[in-house]
């Protein structure tokens, strides 16, 4: 579909090519993108998105388990929070063009930058979660760790959704136009991911809250995704087709499987493990699918030109 | 170039942007020229430098007016820019896009001349769509009556550049404070601060800024910040032989552009229009704006760009509600029994 | 112009902003066309038909500027009764000998006129009598011969009537047929020209090598001159014909020539006539009337500048030290001499003939047959590496070990690394200052020649006693040469300022002269180039002046310095009417101030400042004194603008449409297909193709024209090595229409091969709507645009367009035809190795090409004739 060089030198891109018969005709500069595709790498950034969300929901799960006396579920939640957030930090650093300057993010606090705000959430959260995890594994200063785990859990919900703002606060149509729905998709996906891990890793006797999280989270993710696509208008095409479409369809099947499995996981350890796997895969695939859909809308000038032309400024 | 204080941010009550020197400052200085009812993330803004905290004595806002109706496509701007800013050659590919072998702005290309070949009806000046042969499609029928006088060729050329938006998304989303507002009202990257997170890249509604593939930092036009202080015009404007690229105080340029538009309309070039000069547009007006002879997207420009951070308050609210929903959902899951 | 002269084009844009209408006429729609109000595509090589059509339109419609034409042109002059026109003789003028023209029938009735330029030497006319000395002593005291005139312009043999008859058949219909320009567009151009000429308005023509690089190149310019004279657009502000040169200071290199047949200031190089003395030289080259009448002053001052104290009145000011021409030594002849073994050494400086000159293969054959070759350039150009990576090596035609040429590559300093001047197209000298020292072994051309001269002189001096009398005599011109410039710095760089001062000239006391009118033939003055005299007036380097425009008048006399005498418009006497009043207030430029009894105005008057408009010369007046007060064209032998050129051109007194050497069309104007006086070289490596109706012409059905891109410089020596330019135009390509692409199954960005009888080159296909097929003579005609910047070396590489071109020359200035040729094109890249030769042989066989092909209506080879004025545009590096 890229016009680029495959036409004569005089060709203006006018998209009427195969596969897009339903599209309005539009004009472009040789079919080239108008905005830049994000330079963010795969798997770094999708992993960062998934891990942060999972860690946030796990932290809440761990803290509540601690309150309610689920010691093994607590352990799973707090370790997943620490592991997830730590890995999330590493993925972020690895994605930077200049990783050695990671700390420059903590040099300032910029409320207009979701990445700055996110870093100020991620950094303390991962530090606190890490400390709690050390205590959890060594038994060192356990009473203090319980208080610290509580503090981490206060930051934790933000971990599940700030990445949605991070994506939405760009000129990428696939993310910006879905800015209202994305936080909910990410929030429920995070809950499902944490619940799935709790289901699989905690003993079945303690995993009931996690199973419920897996069921509700997965169903919530499915619902939120559906709402997103319905409200996305022209942008929905990017979510339904291509690599993003395939990935998101797979994610939906996995999420449905996760929810269904979680209903039966109390009875079978192997089902619990399948729930963990499918929930994790579903959540990760959702993030990757959203990421890919956004990239497609950046590459294809249709998504920039037509909405800007046809929707009034105030509508968007 | 050090500002004496950063304005208080109306949304968060904290400094909006880190300033050169790197320290976060807060200031008691009142809001500067804030539009009634709007937040300072969008809408008209008379003086972005003052908004960023520069003192009253800061220089006028400077910018470019690129009049594409007199651009001859010589690319002297591209070469002058690369020479002055020590930007390397970035590819020896023949693109087949008319005479444009540069293709787009990027980390090592801060001026880009677009070439658009069109067939127009000389009486109406409307574009005539002809089917150009596609790759490997020699059977495509050439235009009927090609040697007739029904149509004329029009070759549009336009030198694109960073728009130096009044509300610059790249600057807003930069988490390190590497992108700053200069005393001239321009938007500049401080290379020694940038950590290459790449957030500015998808944030820009014009696709201007990019990450350098070799050194990982973000780069774009600085409006030749290192020349302005010495009273020199930017390299591109200096090299332009036909005054297609005009540099000067933005207010003057906007007036000049209006006059030029009027002149062209009087001459019957009704297709001429200004792009980016309107302070009420989605980015609060561009510091580098254009006179175009066709729709913006024909030149690779977005028809109606909006600074993404305009919607940041709403996005933050949605995220907060979603986060609370997540927390409550988890909590609810702990309400039931152990089965 | 926007394409190849973008900086100069700013003034066109400025004029457009002020309301000027810009018309662009070109085979291709270029960046210039994009800016023009009107674009007129035409078939490459058909311009004389168009210009002739415009001339006819102006004459028939009575649109000419009658008062100007009657007073300032030779319209009224009566031509010799033996003259016969191409209209009478089916495409040839009277005097055609079969190998060229005997021009005597073209003369005016009653007077021989020496032309201001072109073929000047009139030895046979002057010395036809058995006593050369008597003929030479004629002059000062004898009455001047004046041609007969008919001021009513009605005499059947007056120039005006000849002109009318000559162009009568150049109708809009003919223009449409030959040029592919429809009548609507033709009339639009014609009406705009007429509407913008006259007392109140003027029109300017700007051209570049698209007009000169033809077998009738000079006649293209002549046709434009006729049109501009008829419209009264010469010598007036906003008028003129502006020659946009091929590269920086090409104007300078004809003023102070690098051409074999000129001395500085357009003084002809002496021919090898028997016992030619200074007197004889002056007699054969001076004009009876006008400033060429003072040629002796210019020549003696030049000889004094070169041989100083050694040049005295007793020894004819060392006139015998000047070489004498014995034949053609133009660059194409020289290369053929190289191939034939007659040339041992060759300096190539700032040129790249291995890819930059027509029939590049022929050029490389010459280079390969030398003893030594010196290449001075900024980059390791193809001319220095042809012996190891030239196409002949790849094709297996030769090997490096078979090439005996010893190549010396000497790195040159760029213009930023040396002081000096550029002389641009408007004859303006602009000084450039050294910005940085050259690094390494890089040296300026001035350094190279100065130090080379010193070494040669010292070697000759040291061996003086070993040499016999004849050798000593031969050494003398070098040993006696003034060669004493001050040097500065570690590398002993000669002072360019001192050279400029020497060119300017000095008086008997050694002070810088202020004007060429002060030059004397008694040996008291010296000047290295008489037209540059005044550039150092008052001991000030006036070329270095850079007074900003807002601080001086709109003529801007304080920016640089323009020859002659800092005049910005030549022949500006014509800006006033015969009585000396401006033609209109709007176009006032130079006028007669009756109170002061002086010529005055915005510019320096190009006229004797105190000669009143009503001045009439005495019958025995000569030189400038012989000009009437109404003769603005002060360098012309009759003081008039020439609608008809009675002398100076080798191919006719009037422009006539001929087809290019290679054309797909038959000449429908008359049965003479090509310029019968054109210069050809019949050689195996320079085969010509059939044209028009000749059998085999259909093998090469498409017209091609070579062109330049803004992004590159000439043959690429200054741009293909620069990354910031190479990336802007990174590959050799062919520009063609969607229709031709469909016809030949060519794919956008795919490879294609263009083939002629000389060579085949490959390039990428660029399909563009900017190229449109033309209808010409009832058939659809496709044109292909071929840029000529590429070669095998540098950052961006590609085949050289000059592999395609043959060498067929304009007879007067020996410029090659590069702008209109025929070819075939096919998809895919060209064959490699020996297969390439097979392909070419196949094509030649299919077209039935023999050594006689394309030589019709010009039976003899060029070498038989004898050129003496050279390339309009600097020769070899031009394509």
From TrEMBL, chain A:
Pfam families: NrfD (PF03916). It is found in: Cell membrane. Keywords: Cell membrane, Membrane, Transmembrane, Transmembrane helix. It comes from the Bacteria. GO terms for cellular component: plasma membrane. The chain crosses the membrane at residues 76-97, 117-137, 144-164, 184-203. Residues 1-22 are annotated as: Disordered. It is a multi-pass membrane protein. Its main location: membrane. Belongs to the NrfD family. This is Polysulphide reductase, NrfD. It comes from Actinopolyspora alba. The lineage of its organism: Bacteria, Bacillati, Actinomycetota, Actinomycetes, Actinopolysporales.
Automatic annotation (TrEMBL), chain B:
Binds 4 [4Fe-4S] clusters per subunit. [4Fe-4S] cluster 4 binds at residues 174, 194, 197, 200. [4Fe-4S] cluster 1 binds at residues 71, 74, 77, 240. Residues 62-92, 153-184, 185-214 form the 4Fe-4S ferredoxin-type domain. It comes from Actinopolyspora alba. PROSITE patterns: 4FE4S_FER_1 (PS00198), 4FE4S_FER_2 (PS51379). CDD domains: FDH-O_like. It is found in: Cell envelope. It comes from the Bacteria. One of its GO terms (cellular component) is cell envelope. The chain crosses the membrane at residues 315-337. Gene3D superfamilies: 3.30.70.20. This is Formate dehydrogenase iron-sulfur subunit. Coiled coil: none annotated. GO terms for biological process: cellular respiration; formate oxidation. Keywords: 4Fe-4S, Iron, Iron-sulfur, Membrane, Metal-binding, Repeat, Transmembrane, Transmembrane helix. GO terms for molecular function: 4 iron, 4 sulfur cluster binding; metal ion binding. Its cofactor is [4Fe-4S] cluster.
TrEMBL record, chain C:
Its cofactor is [4Fe-4S] cluster. Residues 131-147 have a biased composition (Basic and acidic residues). Residues 870-879 have a biased composition (Acidic residues). The keyword Repeat does not apply. Pfam families: Molybdopterin (PF00384), Molydop_binding (PF01568). Signal peptide: none annotated. It is found in: Cell envelope. One of its GO terms (molecular function) is molybdenum ion binding. InterPro entries: Asp_de-COase-like_dom_sf, Formate_DH_Act, MoPterin_dinucl-bd_dom, Mopterin_OxRdtase. Keywords: 4Fe-4S, Iron, Iron-sulfur, Metal-binding, Oxidoreductase. Belongs to the prokaryotic molybdopterin-containing oxidoreductase family. This is Formate dehydrogenase major subunit. It comes from Actinopolyspora alba.
């Amino acid at each position: 579909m890229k016009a680029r060089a495959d036409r004569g030198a005089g060709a203006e891109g006018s998209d009427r090519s195969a596969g897009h018969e339903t599209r309005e005709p539009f004009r472009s500069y040789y079919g080239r993108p108008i905005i830049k595709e994000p330079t963010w790498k795969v798997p770094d950034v999708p992993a960062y998105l998934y891990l942060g969300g999972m860690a946030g929901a796990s932290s809440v799960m761990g803290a509540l388990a601690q309150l309610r006396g689920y010691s093994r579920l607590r352990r799973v939640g707090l370790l997943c929070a620490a592991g997830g957030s730590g890995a999330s930090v590493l993925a972020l650093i690895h994605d930077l063009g200049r990783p050695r300057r990671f700390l420059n993010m903590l040099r300032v606090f910029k409320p207009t930058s979701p990445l700055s705000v996110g870093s100020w959430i991620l950094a303390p959260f991962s530090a606190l979660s890490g400390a709690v995890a050390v205590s959890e594994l060594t038994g060192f200063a356990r009473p203090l760790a319980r208080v610290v785990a509580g503090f981490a859990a206060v930051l934790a919900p933000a971990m599940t959704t700030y990445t949605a703002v991070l994506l939405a606060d760009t000129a990428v149509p696939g993310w910006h136009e879905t800015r209202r729905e994305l936080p909910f998709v990410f929030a429920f996906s995070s809950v499902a991911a944490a619940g799935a891990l709790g289901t699989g890793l905690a003993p079945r006797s303690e995993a009931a809250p996690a199973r419920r999280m897996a069921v509700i989270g997965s169903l919530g993710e499915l619902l939120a995704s559906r709402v997103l696509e319905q409200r996305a208008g022209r942008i929905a095409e990017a979510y339904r087709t291509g690599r993003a479409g395939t990935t998101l369809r797979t994610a939906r099947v996995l999420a449905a499987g996760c929810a269904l499995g979680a209903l039966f996981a109390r009875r079978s350890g192997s089902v619990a493990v399948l729930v963990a796997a499918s929930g994790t895969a579903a959540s990760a695939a959702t993030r990757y699918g959203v990421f890919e859909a956004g990239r497609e809308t950046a590459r294809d000038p249709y998504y920039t030109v037509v909405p800007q032309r046809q929707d009034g400024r105030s509508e968007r | 170039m050090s500002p004496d204080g950063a304005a208080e941010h109306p949304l968060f009550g904290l400094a909006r942007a880190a300033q050169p020197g790197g320290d976060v400052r807060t200031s008691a200085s009142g809001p500067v020229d804030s539009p009634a009812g709007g937040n300072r993330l969008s809408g008209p803004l008379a003086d972005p430098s003052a908004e960023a905290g520069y003192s009253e004595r800061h220089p006028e806002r400077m910018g470019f007016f690129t009049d594409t109706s007199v651009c001859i496509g010589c690319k002297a701007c591209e070469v002058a820019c690369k020479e002055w800013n020590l930007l390397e050659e970035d590819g020896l590919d023949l693109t087949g896009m008319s005479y444009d072998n540069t293709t787009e702005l990027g980390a090592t290309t801060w001026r880009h001349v677009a070439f658009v070949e069109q067939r127009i009806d000389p009486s109406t000046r409307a574009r005539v769509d002809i089917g150009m042969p596609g790759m490997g499609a020699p059977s495509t029928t050439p235009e009927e009556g090609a040697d007739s006088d029904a149509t004329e060729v029009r070759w549009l050329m336009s030198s694109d550049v960073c728009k130096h938006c009044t509300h610059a998304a790249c600057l807003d989303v930069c988490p390190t404070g590497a992108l700053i507002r200069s005393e001239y009202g321009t938007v500049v990257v401080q290379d020694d601060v940038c950590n290459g997170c790449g957030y500015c890249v998808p944030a820009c509604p014009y696709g201007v800024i990019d990450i350098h593939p070799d050194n990982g930092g973000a780069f774009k036009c600085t409006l030749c910040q290192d020349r302005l202080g010495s009273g020199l015009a930017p390299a591109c404007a200096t090299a332009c032989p036909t005054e297609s690229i005009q540099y000067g105080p933005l207010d003057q340029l906007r007036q000049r552009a209006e006059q030029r538009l009027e002149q062209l309309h009087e001459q019957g070039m009704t297709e001429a229009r200004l792009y980016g000069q309107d302070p009420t547009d989605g980015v609060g007006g561009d510091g580098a704006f254009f006179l175009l002879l066709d729709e913006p997207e024909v030149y690779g420009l977005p028809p109606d760009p909006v600074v993404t951070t305009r919607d940041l308050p709403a996005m933050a609210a949605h995220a907060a509600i979603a986060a609370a929903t997540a927390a409550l959902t988890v909590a609810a899951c702990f309400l039931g029994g152990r089965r | 112009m926007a394409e190849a002269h973008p900086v100069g084009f700013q003034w066109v844009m400025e004029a457009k902003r002020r309301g000027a209408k810009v018309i662009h006429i070109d085979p291709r729609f270029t960046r210039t066309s994009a800016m023009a109000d009107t674009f007129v595509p035409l078939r490459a090589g058909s311009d004389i038909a168009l210009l002739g059509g415009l001339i006819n339109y102006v004459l028939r419609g009575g649109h000419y500027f009658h008062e100007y034409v009657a007073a300032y042109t030779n319209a009224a002059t009566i031509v010799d009764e033996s003259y016969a026109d191409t209209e009478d003789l089916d495409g040839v003028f009277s005097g055609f000998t079969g190998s060229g023209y005997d021009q005597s029938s073209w003369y005016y009735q009653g007077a021989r006129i020496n032309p201001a330029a072109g073929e000047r030497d009139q030895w046979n006319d002057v010395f036809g009598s058995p006593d050369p000395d008597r003929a030479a002593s004629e002059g000062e005291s004898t009455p001047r011969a004046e041609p007969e005139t008919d001021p009513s312009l009605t005499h059947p043999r007056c120039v005006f009537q000849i002109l009318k008859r000559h162009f009568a058949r150049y109708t809009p219909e003919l223009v449409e047929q030959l040029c592919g320009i429809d009548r609507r567009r033709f009339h639009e151009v014609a009406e705009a020209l007429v509407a913008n000429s006259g007392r109140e308005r003027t029109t300017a023509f700007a051209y570049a090598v698209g007009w000169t690089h033809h077998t009738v190149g000079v006649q293209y310019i002549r046709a434009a001159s006729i049109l501009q004279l008829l419209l009264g657009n010469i010598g007036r502000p906003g008028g003129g014909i502006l020659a946009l040169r091929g590269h920086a200071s090409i104007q300078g290199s004809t003023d102070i020539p690098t051409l074999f047949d000129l001395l500085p200031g357009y003084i002809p190089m002496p021919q090898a006539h028997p016992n030619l003395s200074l007197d004889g030289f002056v007699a054969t080259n001076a004009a009876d009337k006008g400033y060429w009448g003072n040629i002796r002053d210019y020549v003696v001052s030049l000889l004094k500048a070169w041989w100083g104290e050694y040049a005295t009145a007793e020894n004819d000011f060392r006139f015998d030290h000047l070489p004498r021409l014995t034949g053609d030594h133009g660059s194409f002849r020289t290369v053929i001499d190289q191939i034939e073994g007659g040339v041992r050494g060759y300096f190539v400086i700032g040129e790249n003939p291995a890819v930059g000159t027509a029939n590049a293969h022929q050029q490389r054959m010459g280079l390969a047959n030398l003893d030594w070759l010196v290449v001075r350039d900024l980059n390791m150009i193809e001319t220095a590496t042809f012996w190891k990576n030239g196409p002949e090596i790849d094709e297996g035609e030769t090997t490096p070990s078979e090439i005996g040429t010893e190549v010396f590559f000497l790195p040159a300093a760029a213009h930023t690394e040396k002081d000096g001047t550029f002389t641009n197209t408007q004859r303006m000298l602009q000084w450039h200052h050294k910005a940085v020292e050259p690094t390494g072994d890089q040296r300026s051309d001035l350094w190279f020649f100065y130090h080379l001269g010193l070494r040669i002189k010292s070697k000759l001096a040291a061996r003086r006693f070993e040499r016999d009398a004849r050798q000593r005599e031969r050494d003398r011109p070098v040993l006696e040469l003034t060669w004493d410039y001050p040097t500065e710095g570690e590398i002993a760089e000669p002072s360019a300022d001192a050279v400029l001062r020497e060119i300017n000239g000095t008086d008997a006391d050694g002070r810088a002269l202020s004007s060429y009118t002060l030059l004397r033939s008694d040996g008291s003055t010296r000047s290295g180039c008489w037209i540059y005299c005044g550039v150092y007036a008052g001991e000030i380097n006036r070329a270095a002046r850079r007074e900003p425009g807002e601080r001086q008048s709109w003529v801007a006399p304080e920016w640089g310095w323009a020859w002659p005498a800092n005049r910005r418009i030549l022949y500006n006497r014509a800006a006033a009417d015969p009585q000396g009043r401006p033609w209109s207030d709007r176009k006032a430029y130079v006028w007669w101030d009756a109170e002061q009894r002086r010529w005055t105005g915005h510019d320096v008057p190009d006229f004797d400042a105190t000669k009143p408009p009503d001045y009439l010369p005495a019958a025995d007046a000569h030189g400038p004194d012989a000009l009437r007060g109404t003769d603005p064209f002060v360098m012309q032998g009759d003081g008039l603008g020439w609608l008809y050129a009675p002398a100076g051109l080798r191919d006719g007194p009037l422009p006539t449409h001929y087809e290019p050497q290679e054309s797909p069309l038959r000449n429908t104007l008359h049965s003479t297909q090509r310029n019968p006086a054109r210069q050809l070289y019949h050689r195996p490596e320079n085969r010509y193709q059939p044209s028009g109706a000749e059998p085999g012409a259909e093998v090469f059905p498409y017209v091609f024209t070579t062109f330049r891109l803004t992004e590159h410089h000439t043959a690429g020596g200054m741009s293909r090595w620069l990354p910031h330019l190479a990336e802007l135009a990174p590959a050799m390509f062919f520009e063609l229409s969607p229709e031709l692409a469909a016809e030949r199954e060519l794919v956008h960005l795919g490879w294609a091969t263009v083939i002629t009888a000389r060579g085949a080159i490959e390039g990428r296909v660029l399909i563009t709507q900017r190229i449109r097929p033309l209808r010409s003579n009832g058939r659809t005609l496709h044109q292909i645009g071929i840029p000529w910047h590429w070669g095998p070396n540098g950052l961006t590489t590609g085949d050289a367009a000059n592999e395609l071109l043959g060498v067929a020359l304009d007879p007067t200035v020996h410029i090659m035809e590069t702008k209109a040729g025929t070819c075939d094109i096919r998809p895919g890249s060209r064959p490699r190795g020996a297969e390439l030769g097979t392909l070419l042989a196949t094509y030649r066989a299919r077209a039935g090409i023999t050594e006689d092909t394309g030589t019709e209506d010009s039976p003899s080879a060029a070498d038989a004739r004898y050129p003496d004025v050279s390339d309009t545009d600097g020769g070899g590096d031009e394509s």
